[in-house]
Amino acid sequence: MIEAFARERAARHDPPDGLVARIMDDARRLQRSPAPVEPLWRQILRALGGWPAAAGLAATAGIGLWIGVEVPAAMLEAGDNQIVLIESDLGSFDHLLLDG
After folding, report:
1. CA nearest 82: which of 71, 98, 69?
2. Where are the alpha helices (DSSP H) in the chain?
3. 7, 44, 47, 77 from 54: Cα distances, Å
4. Does position 83 have pLDDT exceeding 70, yes or no?
């Protein structure tokens, strides 16, 4: 019995060439093709949430820039002059860091 196992272990059993060729053809056919690389602007747009979110972000950024550059007089009057203009060197910001 041990000799039979030894003979089978020593014998070489290769699959037929046609079988190997069919397996390789199936493997090439079923193998996924690499996904096309998406442009960076599309990746960023998808991360933001799509066109509606990007449009809202652009509108908000535009309004924020407009308010930051030229404070409308209506905002100053509505808030009873509570808008504080900070110096260009941000000196008053240091006082906020000291509060603890």
Report:
1. 71
2. 2-10, 17-30, 40-48, 51-69, 73-78, 93-98
3. 72, 10, 10, 32
4. no
